[in-house]
């Protein structure tokens, strides 16, 4: 019984894997928050590309 208590105490006080868990949570949060940001940028680029296309289509080129 004493060995079980000692093993359990050692298990709960060790923290070698805690940093890995922290990094997994941190990286998943960054990736999860990046997805909506990329979607907003993509939508903005579509509008900007349309404006550039309209501007180029209305330009006239003069030849000398």
From TrEMBL:
It comes from the Bacteria. The chain crosses the membrane at residues 21-42. Keywords: Membrane, Transmembrane, Transmembrane helix. This is Flp pilus assembly protein, pilin Flp. The lineage of its organism: Bacteria, Pseudomonadati, Pseudomonadota, Alphaproteobacteria, Rhodobacterales.
